[in-house]
Amino acid sequence: MGIFRRFHSENMMQTSSALAFTTLMALVPLVTVVLSVAGVVPFLDSLVARLDLLIREVLLPPGAAGAIAGNIGKFSHKAQRLTLAGIAVLSITAFLLMNTIERAFNHLWQVQPRPLLARLRLYAFVTAVWPFVLGAVAGAMSIAVTTSLGWFDEPVWFRRFALKAVAVILLGLFFSFLYYAVPNAPVSRRAALTGGIFATLAFSVMQKVFEVFLVSSAMLKSIYGAFAAFPVFLVWLHLSWAVVLFGGLIAASINRPARR
User: Fold this and answer.
1) Distance CA 8, CA 249 (A)
2) Where are the alpha helices (DSSP H) in 110-129?
3) What pTM did the predictor assign?
């Protein structure tokens, strides 16, 4: 009950709303950075493709994932043709998102922020390296599962379940990494993993709820038409950050007795 009380008393829903707005502003700059790095380094395009499939599968609301990912991709490709001034603005926006996320996590753990140089190193790793690590792991696990399937004549539903399980496991690892690396505090693996498992399960439930809602809600499309994916994405971002923050509270609560 202490976690629920703290989530309510510290206005975490308001924090998740601020994070959702910052994410909306910085999403295109972050994707632009990833695509720019992939364009410079050979063999990274295939990892970006794997990462794109993973994001559509587990990080975007079902029914609107294609439209959202397609629009973000279009904006990002246009952003790659910006001038130096435009690139500087995008970089600052991406930095502000990372800084806002770190401040929120440090608040959950009740610790002071890192020095500026340490923060810049962390932001550079999360932006320019971690997406490709996640894409490489996703590719390796997908290939391993796909290769092993078919030996025992499994039904189609089992193959889909196995590939979905790979995506869910990777999402859990991603959340666990955030809870372990982002706070400026020594976080135990058990605490980070527990928070990551909760966030992953909550995301899976939220996806199912959104899927049922979008299938049964014809009114949303009749009101917003082609823009129906936009309000869905805003609500999704808000609830997603609420889940991430609640998982962080769980990890911080488990980790607190071990802190010195």
Assistant:
1) 12
2) 116-128
3) 0.76
What is the tally of structural domains in the chain? 1
- Domain enclosing residue 102, as ranges: 2-258
- In the numeric block, which tokens belong to residue 217? 């809600």
Residue keyed to tokens 């690590």: 133
- State the pLDDT at residue 258: 46
Inter-residue contact 97 to 25 (CB < 8 Å):
yes
Instruction: Report the chain (260 residues): mean pLDDT per 10 consecutive residues.
Output: 85 89 75 62 58 62 59 58 65 80 91 87 72 59 54 62 75 89 91 94 86 66 64 83 94 71
Q: Distance between CA atoms of 96 and 25, rounded to whole angstroms?
A: 10
Q: Which phi-psi region, left, alpha or beta, contains residue 54 (left: φ > 0; alpha: ψ -120 to 50)?
A: alpha
The dihedral through the CA atoms of 9, 15, 17, 20 has a sign that is negative
